[in-house]
Amino acid sequence: MPSSRRYVKDRLDSYYNEVSAIILSRQNPASGLIPASVAITTHGDYRDAWIRDNVYSIMAVWGLALAYRRIDDDAGRAYELEHATIKCMRGILFAYMRQSHKVERFKNSQDVLDSLHAKYNTATGDTVVGDREWGHLQLDATSLFLLQLAQMTASGMLVIYTMDEVNFIQNLVFYIERAYRTPDYGVWERGDKLNHGMAELNSSSIGMVVAALQAINGINLFGARGGPSSVIHVLPDEITRNYTTLHSALPRESKSKEVDAAVLSVISFPAFAVSNPKLVAKTRNEIVKKLGGKYGFKRFLKDGHQTTVEDTSRLYYNAHELKIFEGIECEWPLFYTYMILDGLFRDDKRQVEEYRDRLEPLLVSSAFVPVFQEVEEQHSKRPIASKTRNGALSTSGRRNSSVVRRPRNLPPSGTKLVPELYIVALEDVDREREHPGSTKRYANENVPLVWAQSLYILGSLIQDDLLSPAELDPLNRRFLPFRPKEGSEVVVQMVFLAENAELQSKLATFGLETQTIETCAPITISPPSALRDAYMSLGENSKLGLSGRPNRPVGTLGTAKLYRCQGRLYAFLPHFMDKEEFYLVSDNNYLVSMVEQELAFVKNHWWYSGRPTMVIMLTNEMLGGIVSSKESETQRWRYNHRDSKRNLLNFVMSLRSGMCGGVRVRVSRLTEIISTACFESLDFMVSPESEGETEDWHSVLKGEWHNPEIQKLQSETTHENGHPPRTPRGRSLRRRSSGEMSSFVSSGVTKSPLKSPFYTEEPMSYDSESISLREQIEANMAKLELGPAATDTSRSPVRGISSNRATRGTLGVVTGSMERINDLKADGRRGSYTFDVNDMDLKGSQASVTTVADPEKLRSDQKLPQNVVISSERNGSGLTNVLTLNLGDSSNVQAAIELLNVSTNIYDQIDLLHYLYSCHGLDFSIGQLGTTRSLLEEVYTKAMHMKEWSIVRQVAGLLKKSVNSLTSNVSDLLIRGKPIGIGFGSQEYFITNPLSPEALSELIYKHCASDVREAPLVQEILTYLGSLIRSTATIFDGIQRIRTYFFIIAMREEISRLKGCDEEEAVEHMMQLSPYEMKMLLNAVLSCKDQGDSSADSSVGLSTTYRWRNISERELTHENKLKMTSNVILPSKLVVKAQSGGNTGGNFAKIDIIRDKSQALVSAIFGRGLNVTVLDPLDGAIIESASFDTHFSSSESYEFVKMIEHVDVGSIVVVVAQDDCTEKLSQAAKEACESLGSAKIRQLQFRDSWCLIGEKGATQGSVPEAHVPSSENSPTPMLSHTFDLVAKRKKTLASISGGQVSVYDGGMMPSNGKWIRRRKNDGALNRAPTEFYSRVWKILSKCQGIVIGREFLPSDPTVSERTPEELNFALQVESYLDVIRDPAERQICVECLMVISRMVERNPEIQINSGPLDLTKIIRDAIASFWVKWVSSKSSEIVTAFISSAESPALNPDGKNTSFEKNERLARRLFFDLAQEGNEGTMSYLAKSSVRLSFDLSWLDDKDNRASKGEADDSMMKNGGTVNVE
To answer: Residue 1347: what are its φ and ψ, rounded to 5°?
Structure first.
């Protein structure tokens, strides 16, 4: 290509004429805005100025201006083009600024009616339609404007002139920064594809937001001459939330659109928002594959816009209408221009040439466009100038130039224009549907689409080498600067502070060096709320009515920077340590997991210069009570999951090794890491008017530290060492529930659904009278008992349930719902606390009197007030004096207040406060004690300190507390396509779009009211799920919806299974779990599919060892048979691995526990000294895990000895040394190691590597052991030992029960309960296999519908309205499956559908019978076939004994009737425990039944090689294959 200056200038002039005629000629001279088109069609008036179209249109003008910069432009065209660009951008800015009030409202509400308008009057910049008359909320358009503003400013063009404009731009950042949780109407202004005005989360919008936030962050809008006040600030956590949301959503566009061509602008020019090259390629390929055509790309599937069959009289589509658009969607050449630019920026010449060749035939010559024809005609008819007598030129008496100029709005002859779209002619619609791509399409009248023409010109400028990609992208976004560099390693700097000098001194005795706030000078340490408050002044402008950044927390990435303001330095604590709102971080173990999680988060998303710095404040509440075992009355290792203080200390000590879960960390003093830290300026806080006045902004940045309030309630008597007793005595109140049952009382239900055995194994009705789940719920709930059944409370290990609770009758419902009090009174079922006065802890009283016959004597002895009502009731043990407080009944309020004044038991206090709350609300004044609210806050703080989590959750429910990060965690689930269901039954409500924190909290407390603790628990679960889906998204595979009630039920069932208790006790166990234990339990339930036959990890405090130790008392029947009531699935093989790195060998300790190929998490935090894990020798469960710093303290050796003494003989004990363990290792500790079989413990020297896989009672030298001296500078070899758990169990059981095991539980279940447990778990979690929903769609396309009971999923309009991979279709299928009450049967239905789809796919010649596909009949037939075969394979004696022990005597008294009808429930249970694969797997039976009942086999008549129909059945069954439901 010639490169002479003349040639270049001629080419640029040619483009100039084109741009002038097509774009600049349309730009309004006053406003600077450009109409989208001059066309007025049946589809709308395009003369208005759309924001998106304006930005894209002016890009060609800006690009041409940059091209003119290359040459010595003496005609001033570069200046002209630059300022035309500026005028357009400022026209958009002025139109936006007139709606500053909407920006202010939208920042807080995210309401579609508060959004900026999407289009404006071209001449004036005024709005043209109302707030409700258009889908105005289009975050991609606003973001595109900000992105181009940043790029243009970086290129040297100044668009912003005043501080008012700077403040407005800053507020636009706040306007878009929550796009990850803000549904909008998207690029096409329609929301969901049904065009019903339903906003959606759109990847194209979120991607453009990501690009805008990344691009404009740190841009000085005044250019090189600007100061700190004109710099735009974007908080890193807001970028990251949008970034992770986008990457998790692609290639999907939204719930209703599985793919959209608009995403091309996100993965390439102009956004370049996706950093993962593989994801970019995958998304591009999906668009090309599903949307590509001869005339361009479809916008999305089933898009009816401007098709000839579309009804233009309305903006929306009717039901079933989308089907008529399938295959005839309009194709847009616009997207070819994106593909050309994408190829140019990636230097993919092949792609550029391919799409150039495709685009050229589609372009329309300007000579054939009416608007340009008119201009040409006007030019040709122009009068010729003639000279007058005085020599002047004249035309019709008007003075004119002697030069005949080409009109500015006429493009060069034959200019190629890009049409908006190509349409299938009405007469060709049927042919196009039958043979896609066979018909010729025609362009609509909107030629050119200026947006597309602009991008076409940019591509041509680059291809002609007149412009480079670098000039169009001065911020270098094409190089993905926000992608972590391969091979680079983020080092997180950590600083630990002590709350005061006393704690600092205490921690120093453990070898932990810390600082106090005072010793960090000159750096000021501030709480996270101070940084939040500082940013609230950013962008504040009273003239525009803008308040600055909303009151939102600053995330971990934001607090990981150090800040500078006018020369002063500030460091802020991380937000996740803020205890102002919720209780989660009061659990040290949970705090440790949060620190690990946040460290990994920072490592993965740190894109900034300098190292991240995390400042952690250690408080007395966290670590203040650590004492040695000789000083304490408790053995802290006995409850390792509750010894959170020691675990936290060990964790902090372990960070000195420089690694934490794969993250490099450096622990140091704050002043030593300043030089390598990342700094951010806060100089924007200092306005020119207040310069020199430092008090205001410094006081804000310094923040206010939370000071605990003075306690008003009495406390338990403390020990002599000043520490409260570890476990308070149980309630004096006899309390049957802590629930709010307002949602269920009206239905006659008085037992919390959380405690009700809702799941049933009864078969569904298979006749025509079978009913659906929604009807069954009401019927089932109406039959629930009025209160929990009496149980043997001596078995319950739950703290907080008094051992003297009533065992006769029922006590009704406890409810604190004020709006239901009148209903409760009218119904006669008040919630009540029955108060055992004898058993109260009263201030100043002596030992409690257990039985008092004279109530008045009791009143005198206990000094009770006269208005306390004391009544006597007689039970089996004699007289008991009780006070009954009915919730909502205010007759005993004064008595409750008097008791509250003298009570010291925290359980009594919370129940009395709950009663007072139910009567008078939170603001009721209780004398000198304060209000109910303040006292509940006091109990809340006290319960957190005492780790009484059930009380904590109860108070949190009464105070309606909310998790700070709840909204972001819910958003993380929603944007990954996981709608969230809260509540139960008719109260269940599905959250499908992100909500504000206030709205979300209100919904949860409204729909989760069956137990006052349920709403806080639901918030916990959603928080844990959000954390898990970010870190381990694979465990959610197949889970389409998050139904919190069923998650809780699955967790309850896991506890009930392991503990062998009923539903009520399991709920109480669960409520007392710490947040960390709850998170681990949830993780165990979610991981069940990967841990098929392993028990839940003992980190949740659910060790299975108690079953073996108490077996003779609880599980031996009178026939001396062992019956495992909890149905625990026991592993057969245990592999233990251990390795020590000592000090010089790597300074680490490693223990791996593998049970039947499933790895168990060792929850202890390894640290210096001896790290110990104790395993149950019968099932491999982790009983205890602890770490003992025997280098630092001899008391640690003492604790180690006591632990080994406690361990049962035969228990497996793994001991691994880290750093040094010998300095204070006592003689008794060495003997303890020898009792485990160690022969080398006495050879250990300073900092040696040593590990042992021992067994209590083993002889020395008989167990695996390794020792490497420190002088060798290497770790020990990896020890590994395999234990045969089956052999150990047989030996143990033989010694207990003589080897007699019940037939029912001793092996008759096909998979020993493994598969039925897995199916129940997966069913409760609504888990489905890969490609399940698309396969269901294919089945529906081949039959009339699918039937389960009376529920019918029709083929039409489901198939016509939905696409196979559409999220809304998956949700529709899930809603349909809700009819199945038994979660195991739900999974069998899923397997059945997968089998049918496989057979249809592999046998295309067969057809499904006419009529609906009845799954219930297929499944019942398969179970019946299995039962007949199973009975025939066993001896009659075994079958009879099995039936007798398994079935209810009323159903089959002697067990001799082996018919399927009499034993259907048992047959179902056995069938549900079959494996999937194999000749005797569920899929084999389901395939055969499907062929018999649902397939048309008439094609067999044409098959000569088929010997029989049975052979065909077998062949099809084999072709059906197996289904992986994982």
So the answer is: -120, 135
* pLDDT value, residue 769: 37
Q: What stretches of 1394-1475 adopt beta strand conformation (E)?
A: 1407-1408, 1413-1414
Is the distance from CB of 754 to CB of 1052 less than 8 angstroms? yes
Among 506-510, 601-605, 840-844, 1444-1448, the minimum mean pLDDT is found in 840-844
* pLDDT tens by residue, 660-697: 878 899 999 998 999 999 999 998 887 655 444 445 77
Do residues 40 and 46 lie in contact, with contact meaning Cβ atoms separated by under 8 Å? yes
Whether the upstream peptide bond of residue 333 has omega within 30° of 0, thus cis, is: no
Question: Which tokens hold the place of 722?
Answer: 């000043």
CB-based contacts of 479, cutoff 8 Å, min separation 6? none
What is the three-class DSSP state of 71?
coil
Cis, peptide link before residue 1264, omega less than 30° from 0: no
- Of 1192 and 840, which is predicted with more confidence? 1192
For residue 1248, the SS3 value is coil
Q: Give CA–CA dist 248/605, Å, rounded.
A: 14
Residue 592, both tokens: 């440790």
pLDDT digits (tens, 9 = 90+) for 1494-1524: 887 665 555 444 444 444 455 444 444 444 4
The Cα 1226–Cα 452 span in angstroms is 81
Determine the residue type at 112.
V
**Radius of gyration over every alpha carbon of the chain, rounded to an integer in angstroms:** 37
- pLDDT of 286 higher than 90: yes
1350 half-sphere exposure, CB direction, 13 A CA radius:
11
Q: Could you give the percent of the chain with pLDDT greater than 90?
A: 33
| Rounded Cα gap, residues 1285 and 1281, in angstroms | 12
- CB-count burial class (<10 Å; 0-12, 13-18, 19+) for 924: middle
Q: For residue range 1305-1334, list pLDDT tens digits in order.
A: 434 677 777 788 888 888 888 888 888 888
Label residues 885-919 b or e (16+ Cβ within 10 Å = b): bbbbbeebbebbbbbbbbbbbbbbbbbbbbbbbbb
Q: What is the distance between the alpha carbons of residues 769 and 937, in angstroms, rounded to a whole number?
A: 53
User: At 42, is the pLDDT very low, low, confident or very high (cuts 50, 70, 90)?
Assistant: low
φ and ψ of 372, to 5 deg: -80, -25
Distances (CA, A) of 1398 to 1487, 1494, 1516: 10, 14, 9
Tokens of 83: 């300022």
- Contact predicate 316/310, CB 8 Å: no
Q: Which residue has the tokens 């600083």?
A: 495
**Residue 1379 is encoded by which pair of tokens?**
């009819």
Among the listed residues 1271, 1220, 1262, 1267, the one whose alpha carbon sits nearest the alpha carbon of residue 1242: 1267
Residues 1070, 1090: Cα–Cα separation, whole Å:
23
Nearest CA to 96 out of 156, 138, 153 is that of 138
- Residue 1401 main-chain phi, psi, to 5 deg: -70, -40
Paired strand residues for 734: 834
Instruction: Report the alpha-carbon distance of residue 1348 to residue 1388 in Å, rounded.
Output: 12
> What is the reported pLDDT for 409?
60
Q: Model-level pTM?
A: 0.77
Tokens representing 26 are 């349309």
Q: At what angle do helices 932-946 and 906-920 cross, to 10 degrees?
A: 150
CA angle centred on 818, ends 813 and 819, rounded to 5°: 100
Residue type at position 655 = L
Q: What is the DSSP letter of 520?
A: G
Token pair belonging to 1386:
């739900």
H or E segment to which residue 1253 belongs? strand 1249-1255
Average pLDDT over the chain reads 78
Residues 260, 335: Cα–Cα separation, whole Å: 11
Distances 293 to 364, 416, 665, 671 between C-alpha atoms, Å? 18, 21, 52, 62
CA distances from 266 to 60, 178, 270, 1045 (A): 19, 17, 7, 38
Structure-token pair, residue 327 = 């295959």
CA-CA distance, 659 to 661, in Å (whole number)? 6
